[in-house]
Design goal:
Elements: E1 8-10, E2 13-20, E3 28-39, E4 44-50, E5 54-59, E6 62-66, H1 70-84, E7 95-101, H2 106-111, E8 117-124, H3 127-136, E9 148-152, H4 155-158, H5 162-166, E10 169-175, H6 189-197, E11 199-211, H7 216-230, E12 234-239, E13 247-254, H8 274-279, H9 285-292
Helix pairs in contact: 6-7
C-alpha cells in the first residue's frame, strides 16, 4: 500500500493509492478508502471502499474480490461445472456441493440459486474472513439456509476424512487464493488425489488457476496436477476486470472424464448464460501452448 502526497478525501474518508503487483514488476493501482483492517491468525485482511468497484477485500496485499465485478468470477466458477456436469441432465437428480475456501460467500450464494442442490458444505479456514465479508461486502449466500453446512477449518484436512469420503460430493468448487500462504497446500498433488476420493462417480471438480497472461505457471501447475489424477482436464476462462491481466483461468475435471463444455440446464445470471458457457472453453493459442508444454 502506498500513500502519495496527492491523497484525497472521499465519501468514506481519506483515500490513498493501494498498489498490487502480480508479478512484482507490474503494478496495479486502486485509489480507495480503508474501512477495516485486521490481522487474523492466518493473514492480513483489509477492506476498502472504491468509488467504482464498491467494497474491496484484500488478503496479504492481494485483491481477492470487489462488489463491482465479483459476480463474474463467482458465477463462472459455480455454474459452468454445475450446469455442464452430466448429473445436470437428470431433472430429478439432487446434488451435493463442496466449496473449499470461498470465505467471501459469493460461491455459496451462486450454488444456492439452484433448487436441485440439496446440500452445500463450505469449508473456510479463516473465520474472520467469513465474518468481515458478511458485514462489509454483503455478497454472501444465506448461511442459515437448511441446505448449508459452514465448516471453519482446513480444506485440505477436510477432504482427507474417511467420514467425508463415505458421502461423496457431486461437485467440488475450489475457491482458493494463489499458491502462497494459507493457499499453498491447496496446490499439491496429494490435495488433488484427496479431491478425487471425495467425488461421486460422475462428479466434477473445478479450481481457479490464475490469470494466464502473468501466471502461466499457476495454470500449468493446476492442469498438470489434475491431469495426473483425472486423466482428462478442461480449461475455460472468464474476464474479471479487477484482476491484473483480466483473463482468469479455471481448470475442470470429471471423475468419469465426461465433458462439461456445454450447459445441460437453462440458467441465466448477471454474466453467465449458455452461450458464455460454451464460448468460455475457446482458448487462445498461447494458452494452448502453455498447456501443451
Amino acid at each position: 500500500m502506498k500513500k502519495p502526497d496527492g491523497s484525497s478525501l472521499g465519501p468514506s474518508g481519506p483515500q490513498w493509492w493501494f498498489e498490487e503487483g502480480i508479478p512484482s514488476t507490474i503494478r496495479h493501482g486502486l485509489k480507495m478508502a480503508l474501512l477495516h483492517t485486521e490481522r487474523t491468525p492466518f493473514q492480513q485482511m483489509e477492506i476498502y471502499e472504491h468509488d467504482v468497484l464498491g467494497r474491496v477485500l484484500v488478503l496479504d496485499g492481494i485483491v481477492q474480490t470487489t462488489q463491482g465485478d465479483e459476480y463474474v468470477y463467482h458465477e463462472m466458477l459455480t455454474h459452468v461445472p454445475l450446469l455442464g456436469c452430466r448429473t445436470a441432465k437428470d431433472p430429478n437428480r439432487r446434488i451435493s456441493v463442496l466449496i473449499i475456501g470461498g470465505g467471501d460467500g459469493g460461491i455459496l450464494r451462486e450454488v444456492l440459486r439452484h433448487d436441485w442442490v440439496e446440500r452445500a458444505v463450505m469449508v473456510e479456514i479463516d473465520e474472520a474472513v467469513v465474518r468481515a465479508a458478511a458485514e462489509y461486502l454483503q455478497i454472501n449466500g444465506d448461511y442459515e439456509d437448511p441446505r448449508v453446512q459452514l465448516v471453519i477449518g482446513d480444506g485440505s484436512a477436510y477432504v482427507k476424512s474417511a467420514e467425508v469420503r463415505q458421502c461423496p460430493f457431486d461437485a467440488i468448487l475450489v475457491d482458493s487464493p494463489d499458491p502462497v500462504g494459507p493457499g499453498l497446500k491447496l496446490f499439491s498433488d496429494k490435495f488433488c488425489r484427496d479431491l478425487a476420493a471425495c467425488l461421486s462417480p460422475a462428479g466434477v471438480v473445478v479450481r481457479q488457476s490464475g490469470v494466464a497472461a502473468y501466471q502461466s505457471d499457476v495454470l500449468q501447475l493446476a492442469a498438470r496436477q489434475m491431469c495426473q489424477v483425472f486423466g482428462d482436464v478442461e480449461v475455460y476462462r472468464a474476464a474479471v476486470p479487477t484482476y491484473i491481466g483480466g483473463d482468469m483461468a479455471f481448470t475442470l475435471a470429471t471423475k468419469d472424464n465426461h465433458s462439461c463444455a456445454r450447459s445441460n440446464r437453462p440458467f441465466e445470471g448477471r454474466y453467465y448464460n449458455s452461450d458464455v458457457h460454451a464460448a468460455a472453453f475457446a482458448l487462445p493459442s498461447d494458452w494452448r501452448k502453455h498447456l501443451s508444454s
